[in-house]
Every structure is written in C-alpha cells, then in structure tokens.
Amino acid sequence: MKIVVTSLFVQDQDKALAFYSEKLGFVKKQDVPVGEFRWITLASPDDQDGTELLLEPNDHPAAKEFQKKIFADGIPATMFGVEDIQAEYERLVDKGVKFTMQPTKMGELTIAVLDDTCGNLIQIVQK
C-alpha cells in the first residue's frame, strides 16, 4: 500500500493552483470539474508519478474551522522536503512568498514555514 493522493484544504482553488504551480513549482496533474468545484492535483516536478497533492475546497464548515484554527495556532498544514533549504527559501522570497519562520536548525533538521495565501502554513524541511 502507498499514499497516492493527500489533500490540503484551500480557500480558493484558482488562487491555490496559481500559488502551488507558479510559486512553489509543482506540476498540475489533474483539473477535472466536480460539481461547483474541481478535482485539482499537483505533483512534485522531481517525482511527477509520485504522490499527488489535492487542492481540496474548504467549503464544509468543519474544514473552514479546522483550517482557521491550525493557522491561528501557527501549525503547518503539511510539510514538503527540500534538498537545500537556504536556496529554496531565497528562491521563494524572490518570488514574493512570505515566511513566518526563516530556516531554523532543529536537531538534525532545518525547517522554515511559509504562508500559502490560501489559509495554510506550509513547512519546508531539509534533513
């Protein structure tokens, strides 16, 4: 068994698609109409056949509340791995991405946290 899709609640699917593809560099895999929303998935450019990230509308009241509360508490909604966190941080800052935590060494890991502009904090990590 393996993880094929993981979801992330977003406030606006179009805005999220633009952020995750244009700023972070993920590759759009699927964009299929599903009622009033869409099934939009992206994958890492380094592993396009790997796990897909589903940009899930936060239309359900529980999803909105969950997303709002973890954001307010500073809890990242998910984590992405990077090879060189300092270079990635600088690349993203140059693209206008706002960070709530600059690269910080935590034991054997270095982490940073960014705001995806769609209601989530995202942690990037270098092992």
UniProtKB/TrEMBL annotation:
Residue stretches making up the VOC domain: 1-127
Designated name of the protein: Glyoxalase/bleomycin resistance protein/dioxygenase
Alphabetically ordered keywords of this record: Dioxygenase, Oxidoreductase
Pfam families assigned: Glyoxalase
Organism: Paenibacillus vortex V453
Annotated PROSITE patterns: VOC
GO molecular function: dioxygenase activity
